[in-house]
């Protein structure tokens, strides 16, 4: 049975402390300019960080944003070929750039710092290639706004531990944010440390439960011990489902 909300909020706080002890304090400092963050996050979908960065740098060899909008879409797709699904991402990037230029007369996103968070999220997610994860990353990382980006790692770890029931990543944004304080440095540190934990320990297949600092309060570990199944193979109540079924525990 799902934990009551106050218990889930307390569990998240406990996870924050455990992960800080394991991975350290992570100060909130913008890692790159807002437009770089926005376009790179679109490129990052299903792509390693090295390939995402290589695709971004080659995209810039086409010229400035105006030039990229006007370039043949095939040329944009070729430039970003190190990223997965370049044929889908290229027209999205061009459409996103075009929409920003049309609405703002340029590519300066600093106005997002002063919009109410709800309006800033809406403005970004109304762009053609931008979902709630990308919008949240830009708002938190670049403008220290109190939102919580949920990527595949954050989603998997929080679901397995039992902070959230099985749900999609989109819904998880809203639910997890509702459990967290509006504290950007905390939100940032929890995001990056959950991501790191998901990459290193609570992996999609064969999570390394024996060395996990979260295992004493983890629902999946309580249910399966050291044999927690692949994320897509697990469902609430301990049964199994097909790997390509709905989002698993
Ligand atoms: S105990 Fe296992 S399933 Fe639970 S968070 Fe840690 S690695 Fe993931």
TrEMBL record:
InterPro entries: DNA_glycosylase, Endonuclease3_FeS-loop_motif, Endouclease-III_FeS-bd_BS, HhH-GPD_domain, HhH_base_excis_C. PROSITE patterns: ENDONUCLEASE_III_1. Residues 43-200 form the HhH-GPD domain. Keywords: DNA damage, DNA repair, Endonuclease, Glycosidase, Hydrolase, Iron, Iron-sulfur, Metal-binding, Nuclease. CDD domains: ENDO3c (cd00056). SMART domains: ENDO3c, FES. It holds the Pfam family HhH-GPD. It comes from the Bacteria. Its cofactor is [4Fe-4S] cluster. One of its GO terms (molecular function) is endonuclease activity. Belongs to the Nth/MutY family. This is Endonuclease III.
